[in-house]
Design brief:
Elements lengths: L2 H13 L2 H15 L1 H8 L15 H11 L4 E6 L8 E7 L2 E7 L6 E5 L4 H11 L3 H25 L19 H35 L30 H11 L4 E6 L8 E6 L10 E5 L5 E5 L6 H14 L5 H29 L6 H26 L35
Antiparallel strand pairs: 1-2, 1-5, 2-3, 3-4, 5-6, 6-7, 7-8
């Protein structure tokens, strides 16, 4: 291909769905720091002290029981960043509720509904609040990013010599000024754009893998009905303290970060967390229990197959959620650079072509208007729906008030969990 053809391809990839691509990039930057923004907005999102040991699940349960005696625990989790409060999802008599807590002490810091900034941004960024079709649309934009990355090295001649070239004074109405800054920002951000492209392409492939017959990820085990009898006065659902004690005995090295109660007797209780495996989400390490505390299975991140490992690496790599605040800030910095590249590319396209097509509406074109309409409608639809959370089925967890008088800590159980 000639340089002119590479340039035309590069320009097309950045402009054809530019409005939608810009929305996804901006929402991605904000989503990366969404928990930190919440941290600044309200003290309930803040941990009281940085956690240096295991999460105090037993004391958390006692505090929840005192504050929400008529509620049931759906799930509880803590974050990678230890300055953030954990969150317990509750089924209350009035509906769904979050209770926020300090992971180190188990003290409650506040409560809130399902709708919050982090949920809004993730719904918008991941699938435009349009379900599976929205996910396909968002992840398909990765192909445009891939074209932009590859073509940029052919468009920008001798790019390897330009790392510290001063782009000059930025001038709003001068295309060459935009082009100089566009090249410099793109040169320093290409690794990040490539990382977002590769992880985005994986999300696209994963969407179709989940709909195929390929069993690339270990399925959760199924509990036998005889091993999980319905709760009675003599056979109450396991408490949070009991569940975490059993799981910790099974994997003492695991930092348990999330507990999910089952909502069906044949479904397992799932506990997940981190060991010494790098660059995997918490769900890569799992412990499965049935409703009576019997061990159903254990999943180790280090033993996952290639595709399963890629699945659990994608989120940490895409959002920078594998370390502390510094990594998140680096991701946000270069993510902002990507936003500038997209917006700047559209601006340069206008400055270059406005003499041929001075009417802005016509310049945008059919695909441009479609992208703009989709972007605006997804923002409106997300704002209208992101706070809705229906409780279709109650969890098989004890009424919190019933565990209030029990000891805060229960002894570790063997794999048979006969005494639990």
């Amino acid at each position: 291909m000639t340089n002119r053809q590479w340039f035309a391809l590069h320009s097309w990839a950045g402009f054809v769905l530019g409005c939608l691509l810009l929305l996804v990039c901006v929402s991605g930057v904000l989503a990366t720091l969404s928990y930190e923004i919440q941290y600044l907005s309200d003290s309930k999102y803040r941990a009281l002290t940085p956690r240096s040991a295991a999460v105090n699940w037993a004391q958390l349960e006692q505090n929840l029981a005192a504050a929400y005696p008529d509620s049931q625990l759906i799930s509880a989790q803590v974050h990678q960043q230890r300055y953030l409060a954990g969150e317990a999802a509750l089924a209350t008599p009035t509906g769904f509720r979050f209770a926020y807590f300090d992971p180190a002490s188990g003290a409650l810091t506040g409560s809130g509904d399902w709708g919050r900034l982090s949920r809004f941004l993730r719904n918008l960024h991941m699938y435009l609040s349009m379900g599976s079709s929205g996910k396909v649309i968002v992840t398909s934009l990765s192909f445009l990013l891939l074209i932009s990355v590859i073509s940029s090295f052919f468009v920008y001649r001798n790019w390897w010599r330009q790392w510290f070239r001063h782009p000059g004074t930025w001038r709003w109405a001068v295309r060459n000024s935009w082009a100089s800054w566009h090249k410099l920002i793109g040169l320093w951000s290409w690794w990040f754009v490539l990382l977002m492209t590769v992880t985005g392409l994986w999300y696209f492939a994963e969407h179709w893998l989940l709909r195929s017959e390929l069993a690339y990820y270990p399925p959760p085990p199924t509990a036998a009905l005889s091993a999980a009898p319905p709760a009675t006065a003599a056979n109450k659902p396991l408490s949070l303290a009991g569940i975490t004690a059993i799981a910790q005995a099974q994997r003492p090295e695991l930092d348990i970060r999330a507990v999910l109660y089952n909502s069906h007797v044949k479904a397992p209780i799932v506990l997940s967390g981190q060991d010494d495996t790098v660059l995997v989400r918490d769900r890569a390490n799992r412990i499965y229990l049935d409703s009576s505390g019997q061990l159903l299975g254990r999943q180790y991140a280090a033993e996952l197959g290639l595709l399963a490992r890629l699945s659990d690496m994608a989120d940490p790599l895409h959002f920078g959620n594998f370390s502390g605040l510094t990594v998140k800030l680096i991701y946000s910095l270069f993510g902002s650079g990507l936003c500038i590249l997209v917006a700047g590319g559209m601006r340069m396209h206008w400055l270059r072509t406005k003499h041929k097509q001075p009417h802005l509406a016509r310049w945008l074109g059919v695909f441009g208007w479609l992208a703009l309409a989709l972007a605006l409608s997804s923002i409106v639809w997300t704002a209208a729906t992101f706070s809705k959370r229906e409780l279709n089925r109650l969890p098989l967890s004890p009424l919190l008030g019933s565990v209030l008088q029990q000891p805060a800590a229960q002894p570790s159980c063997s794999s048979t969990a006969a005494a639990c």
